[in-house]
Amino acid sequence: MTSLIHVFLFLILGTLVSLAMSRTILESTIVDKHEQWMVDFSRKYESKLEKEKRLNIFKDNLEYIESFNNGGNRSFKLGLNEFSDMTQDEFISTHTGYKMQNNPTLFESTSFMYENYSSAPKNFDWRDQNAVTHIKNQGGCRCCWAFSAAAAVEGLIKIKIGKLISLSEQQLLDWSRNGGNQGCNGGWMMNAFDYISQNQGIASEESYPYKQIQETCDTQINEVATISGYQMVPKNDEEELLKAVTNQPVSVALEGNGRDFSVLQWWSVYRRLWKFSHPCSHHCWIWDK
Fold first, then answer.
1. Fewer CB atoms < 10 Å away: N or C end of the chain?
2. What whole-number distance in Å separates Cα of residue 172 and Cα of residue 266?
3. Is the Zinc keyword given for this protein (predicted)?
4. Which tens digit of pLDDT belongs to each residue from 199-212?
5. What pTM value is reported for the model?
């Protein structure tokens, strides 16, 4: 009987030691991944306490990513990115910027110039037509509305005159204060379109570069492009959106408050129609289908 008890004790102790070793190895692996991530994204922390805090957040995000990716067939993947040491609340407060508060323009019915268009191909990508500029980063300024508006105009100008020009988000950030636009505290792309059409156009990014902060308006502006106005794609209608995207890039708003958005790896999710059934928090644009 004594011998049997010893055997059971040995098995129990052996199991506990094995579990402890597994946890140690797992923790060590996460620390190594965090250290490599810090190198990859040039992240430095002001103190050991801050580093420990960020490591715990990183661990939580990593576990969520692995759980999601192992959860079955998905239309997109999650992965480590530059936001992987941020909480969801931190990400939303610094990297979104869409203003959903009572803008009647959002739900206004306007004419739709592509209503009778019927020649949409099965596959089309404006990048193949060199109508999309380089990838841009709004940084910690919540002005996605300006980036979305500028990108849509960039594509349209390329289609109309054959010249791709990177346009100034900073000009929109500084000048487009109409209709409730609040600089780095969020805004509406419709107001940005109104500003461009009503104020003789928009300058190039080269002449009016992005600073990640709303500044005093630069009065020396050399406009290189303009628009006559904008139209709304009929809501909740993928066929109408398809017609629009086939003819030009489209500025859209999407719900970016979900956790998946901050840890996206494959951005194919941008290519679907985002309906206004949830509060929207982020602007982007659609360039293919």
1. N
2. 29
3. no
4. 889 999 999 999 99
5. 0.70
